[in-house]
Amino acid sequence: MPGSSVVFAPDSFKGSAAADVAARALAAGWSAERPQDAVILRPMADGGEGTVDAFALAVPGSERKPVTVLGPDGRAAATEWLLLPDGTAVVELASASGLTLLDPLLPGEAHTYGFGQAIAAAMDGGARRLLLAIGGSSSTDGGAGALAALGALFLDDAGRPVPLGGRGLAAVAEVDFRGLRDLPPGGASVLTDVANPLLGPLGAAAIFGPQKGASPADVIALDAALARLAGLLDGVDPETAGAGAAGGAGFGLLAWGAALTPGSSAVASALDLAEAIRGADLVVTGEGAYDGQSAAGKVPHHVAALAAAAGVPAALVAGRIGAPTRDFALAVSLTELAGSGSAAQAHAQRYLREAGAALARAFASTGGHTK
């Protein structure tokens, strides 16, 4: 009997497994149960960590360009940007100014200056267009650090540069863009996975500040600092969907002239994921935590939508499942497999393989018909 075709298109399981590692582990578990099936690996990203890797896999002839930048805590950070054959550069905030680079967290002092340095390096390296992946940020600085690295000045009332980081924005009295680099000829698209505004109860500080170490008092102070910045940049609406992404980096990049675009769809297009799904019998996606934010542009939501459009069932694997999974024919929680979240995170590859095997058994029990 001929086998089935299964596409594995997970995002990274943050802190546990990169997207390519997760895809391989899930596929290995599946193949142990159903070796006759064809497995197709399409590790995904949504503008967060792993976006450069996803494009490098998807686009033959891409070149990785290493660069050392100022990390979010002031230490040197080794990162890289990716040059595509058409002259587009993919630059990832997570690897230059990301949360995983910090220990301890620095909610008021962490900044995006290194991300701006990586963007500058890409432009100096001949990039004609920019794809800026901004997920995984460690800071709430409104993108001011990145813009400062690109030539902008953020000055206090005495004309001195304010300190880097969200807390420093509390003193900003003037923004000078005269030295800010122009966008490259093909412009810049910002890949993001959230639609939050800059300010308020759904804004950058309130929603994302706590995961970056911000206390309730810090959240209030950071929101006020972002509001101060927004008041000096009249040409950008802080209510724009996605302005609050990456601690407000979305807002800062909008002020530079960049355009926001859903990261999941951009990566899926580069991977030609829709075409791979059209010929499949099942698509398996996943992420570390499937929750209420997952439907706002995260990878599983986008992959499920592509699968639905093709009439192909989708399955979900997540480290933790905290939201309804009605868009998926099958769903597996690593936490339930492992018995605890800590065990699932510590041994992610083991439980991803077990999850792949569990999905294969469930798929077989239905005769390959999951709906």
Question: Explain this structure to me?
Answer:
The chain is of the alpha/beta class. It has helices at 19-33, 51-58, 93-97, 113-124, 144-149, 204-208, 216-232, 245-256, 263-271, 273-278, 299-310, 334-338, 341-346, 348-365; strands spanning 5-8, 38-41, 63-70, 76-83, 88-92, 129-133, 153-155, 174-176, 188-192, 259-262, 282-290, 314-321, 330-333. The protein has a six-stranded mixed sheet with strand order 3-4-5-6-9-10, with helices on both faces. Helix 1 (19-33) crosses helix 14. It starts with a strand and ends in a 6-residue tail after the last helix.
Distance between the termini: 21 Å
Overall pLDDT confidence: 95
Given helix and strand content, the structural type is: alpha/beta
* Poorly predicted tracts of residues: none
The helix content, as a percent range, equals 25-40%
| SSE succession | EHEHEEEHHEHEEEHHHEHHEHEEHHH
Strand content: 15-25%
Biggest beta sheet attributes: 6 strands, mixed
How do the strands line up in the largest sheet? 3-4-5-6-9-10
State the total count of DSSP E strands: 13
What Rg is obtained from the alpha carbons, in whole angstroms?
A: 21 Å
* Shape, principal axes of CA atoms: globular
Count of helices? Answer: 14
